[in-house]
């Protein structure tokens, strides 16, 4: 296949999201339309915590490999978005506010004792991917953020409409992401379009984004199997 132009490459990346992004997963369709029970929503929040808490760890592993001050400064901002900067809470702390408000014990959530194996394997695979693959592939794998504003808007509106046990305060994690994610995308997409300068590199970027979409999908597969249908949480997993 011939080398794609930067605009054509962006179109190929966006097509992956249109086909594979987890906004299409049956579990999310249930979550966003108010069809889950409170325990099922609790299971989602508890398991998603591990993903949220692992993002700054995977970003730190990439930061250590970035070759310039400008690149490291850009990626350091992402870590502060999730870990906070000491003056205001970051995304990880805001996610714990969500689990608190859903009635989950914070110490239990942070302990990861009730985590689904499928969640752990998927998230660990992402951290490993970013640590071991090229900088270009690692940055390309972050491009699911191209699609996140849509899922955030749908999620917040749907959950506020569908569940009497959530409020705007419960879902406050998502508000900053509506501005942070597009900023992250501007940089990462620009980097990929500039540095994927052979068709081989472009294919690696496309594969990285497919991988990221797949691991997000796999997390929801695990949740659906354990808590929706057939409803078989594995040994050691959280039970309502």
Describe this structure in words.
This protein is mainly α and about 240 residues long. The chain contains 11 helices and no strands. It has helices at about 5-20, 25-30, 40-65, 70-85, 90-100, 105-110, 115-130, 135-140, 150-160, 175-195, 200-225. Helix 3 packs antiparallel against helix 4 (about 70-85), helix 7 (about 115-130) runs antiparallel to helix 11 and helix 8 (about 135-140) crosses helix 11. The protein is globular, with a radius of gyration of 18 Å. The mean pLDDT is about 95.
List the helices and strands and how they pair.
Elements lengths: L5 H15 L5 H7 L5 H26 L5 H15 L7 H11 L4 H6 L5 H16 L2 H7 L6 H15 L11 H22 L3 H29 L13
Helix pairs in contact: 1-11, 3-4, 3-5, 3-7, 3-11, 7-11, 8-11, 9-10
Structural class: mainly alpha
Question: Helical amount among residues, as a percent range?
Answer: over 70%
- Rounded Rg: 18 Å
Number of strands: 0
Strand count, sense and barrel status of the largest sheet are:
none
> How would you sum up the global shape?
globular
The residue ranges in which pLDDT falls below 50 over 5 or more consecutive positions are: none
**Series of secondary-structure elements, N-terminal to C-terminal:** HHHHHHHHHHH
Beta content: under 5%
Amino- and carboxy-terminal Cα gap: 51 Å
Total of DSSP H or I helical runs spanning 4+ residues: 11
Q: Average the pLDDT over all residues and give the rounded result.
A: 94
